[in-house]
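Q: Is it fine to ask for two folds in a single conversation?
A: Yes, each is treated on its own. Send the first.
Q: Here.
A: Result:
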Amino acid sequence: MRKNSIKNNRINREFQRELSELINNEIKDPRIAPMVSVVAVEVAPDLKTSKIYISVLGDLEAQENTLKGLKSAAPFLRSQLAHNLNMRNTPELTFIVDQSIEYGVNMSHLIDEVIEADELKAGGDSEEV
């Protein structure tokens, strides 16, 4: 598989920027959580398909509802992208929930807990000496 070209990277960035704006400002679906971030976009080199990785702040139910809402809004989003980006082909949109931000937050909490436990242990050892 070949690497993304400069053109494809530029299209990915423009899609990400435009989709973020559309999701946060234009869609009024109550199923979509208020804190939705477009983490990454991968548009196929032939511009036929795209994968949109989203992050949703909330529980599993909020993520599922947001995914359903975005899938139902996909035709609207696609038409807006075609209009705003003025492209010959506008790819089909496939939304995927990305857990990387949530995973990073959980790892950060675990690291903080370990550091705190080490500090307590080090503080307890120095008092005994």
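Q: Second one now.
A: Result:
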Amino acid sequence: MTTSAQHSSTYIRFLNLVQSIRQLPSFPEIDAVEERMLNLFAATWHSKQPMTVLQAMGMMTEISSTTAHRRIKSLRKKGLIALNIDEVDNRIKYVVPTEQSNKYFAQMGQCLDKAQNA
């Protein structure tokens, strides 16, 4: 099998694994916009950079700030993000990961590992 075909096969296995765990009752129900936002947030969190709500709202230029704000509220309600108030200026809130978002990313990582090692 060629490298391109191997990569395609691995990706398809990954998608199938993700689809199967999305059906589990313990897996959070998130839509495509929320999932994309969460993935963008993860990249920022991984770089150890603080991220304000305003910055988070501007990460997806293809959606309005109203939609972004609504999705941030939804992710917070679902327990996938938390908002921490700045110690100096209480008007500033930072978007931070939660234990549930860490579990979500761990599950995604397990799917990737399984797809690569199959």
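Q: Anything structural to flag on that second result?
A: Two points. The domain at 3-117 is CATH 1.10.10.10 (Arc Repressor Mutant, subunit A). The chain is about 60% helix and 10% strand.
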